[in-house]
Design goal:
This protein is an alpha+beta fold. The chain has 2 helices and 2 strands. The protein has a single domain, classed as 3-Layer(aba) Sandwich (Rossmann fold), CATH 3.40.50.970.
């Protein structure tokens, strides 16, 4: 696999938010998403949710390697199945 750019780690955004008295959660698994959003919606003020995503995941929208921002991909290409044509007499 060849990835473009330099891999940089991110700071712990939840810890940064906590330094400003803003609550937050780190979400690492799919089943944590809905409870985290529900908790955030109950808060009267700001709330930070940091979603951990594997680098190999295709997260949309994305800019393909070597492409410009005008060539952004908003969703995966849908496969179109073409049935073979039959020769009818």
């Amino acid at each position: 696999k060849r990835y473009v750019a330099t891999p940089l780690s991110c700071p712990d955004f939840v810890k940064i938010a906590e330094a400003y008295c803003i609550p937050g959660l780190n979400v690492k698994r799919k089943e944590e998403v809905v409870p985290a959003i529900e908790q955030a919606m109950k808060e009267p003020g700001p709330f930070v949710i940091s979603f951990m995503v594997e680098p190999e995941e295709n997260v949309y929208p994305m800019v393909p390697p070597g492409a410009s921002l005008a060539e952004i991909v908003e969703e995966p290409k849908k496969e179109v199945k073409i049935w073979p044509q039959r020769n009818t007499p």
